[in-house]
Amino acid sequence: MLHAVPKRWFSWDFNVMRGDEVLGDIDMSLWREKGVLTVAGEAYRVYREGLMNGDFLLESSGVVLARAQKPSAWRRSFTITHAGRTYTLRAASLFRRAFTLFEGETEIGRVSPQG
Fold this sequence. Notes:
mainly beta; globular
């Protein structure tokens, strides 16, 4: 299981952990829905296509690797496409920041802040 551990109190910047091992980090911009995801020393841009709407994109070297759509502003879920496959990321509960990742109806992972 992966854990997103905030770097500071009340921060949207996280270290992505598996146990005690840091796998990467997420540094979010304060100005807009964008940031940088770093995994194994390689940086990936994450950003929204439009100013306040549109899909979220994951990009490396100018190539879009994955696309996430938020089907509804009222639901905490995303439909993600990557390499021809479709995934669903949705909130594990109403009151926590944990998310569960599904391929079809099969749970394949979870992401949750620690602490």
